[in-house]
Amino acid sequence: MPLRYEPSPLRVIYLEDQVDGIKIPSFIYELASNRQNRHQLEIKMKHFGRITLATLLTLPAVLSSKRLLNGWYPCSEFTFSDEGSAGGLMAECTMYTAPVCYPGICDSSDASESTVDIFVKRMPATVGDPETSTNVWVLQGGPGDSSTGMESSMVNLHNQLGGAINVYTMDHRGTGRSTFLDCEDEILERGSHPFRFKYRDLASFSMTSAATDIATFISKFTNGANTTVYDVSYGTALHIISFRSARRQVHVLFDDGRSGDGIVYKRDQYWNRSAVIPKQASVLLLNGKLDLFTPSKYAESLLAALDGDKKELFTIDHAVHDTVVFSQLVEDLANATDTCGFKLLVSFVENNGDLERLGRSCVSRMPAFNMTTYAKFHHVYLSTEDPYDGNYNSSLRQRLSDLL
What are the structural domains, with CATH classification, of the chain? Predict the structure, then answer.
């Protein structure tokens, strides 16, 4: 899929510093921000008098603690051009420089890397003041999926609420455009991996570390207004942890497809502890009873475990995984654009998480269970006109374009 062009966030400052009387752009000088690297730069300047931009850019960049964001810059709502029309650069993107290890989670003192990059995208409010508007986070699951799969939901939610909210998303550490965690078979066969040299402690890419990125960003880099976190699948496990960390900022939590705890996970202070719902917050859970990835029993267990009264669970009888998308209100699922899950989400945000005012009428209007399949599916996958008692017809397999 072709990538859509997104402008670079690099801003060149033309103020100049001098090293032994030779002027260099200050943004280059700041690349050598610690004493050792700056000393190396000064030595190069003394010996060669002139130094090219390309040579300077090879110096390691150690970011100042004051520069945790590289600045918000215009970017496309849709990362991939075939996902939809950008309509101009209406979104904004940034990179958050996060520590490899947060205090109390892991130790990276002997690691070669001390920071990781966290990609964040937002659609600022276009009605009212973004500095005071409600914030909604739309967060992906997987585990391992990037935020590109949530961009349509971001745009739809922003439009449905009349542009009066700020909508955010993030690539969890290890995924997408954030510092990427991958593993090559050849390296594994040798019994080693550069991960241990770069980051040392495996907990640096744990659920707790990823959740702390979210909580820290909400606390430090958003406007402090009411915040709703909408998360899907594996994202729910992460954000129950972040919910505990960003207690003051997060007012409402919308979980779609509750994921259970993993079986390989170092136990920390969050293990086997029920989350307490802060006084200002509420929690809305949504799950499909036909969800094979995150069975509804996990959502029921979470509802019982949450410590607080402002909580509610909707289980949609015939919905599958990702209930906001797959809870269509009409039987013609191939052409359905309106879902009950999305209506619940919009109402939840509109009413600032007030469950008493939540519009829930769509739940009773869900269509009955229907085993009818769509012709384009059983043509391509089963090569027959009747998926239950039909004859094989090889010519039907040529209609793959029907699904595109």
Answer: 1-62 (no CATH), 73-365 (3.40.50.1820), 373-404 (no CATH)
Give the tens place of pLDDT for each residue, 234-288. 545 555 554 444 444 444 454 444 445 444 445 666 666 677 888 888 888 889 8
- In tens, the pLDDT along 100-133 reads 999 888 888 888 888 999 999 999 999 999 999 9
pTM score: 0.69
Tokens of 80: 């991939």
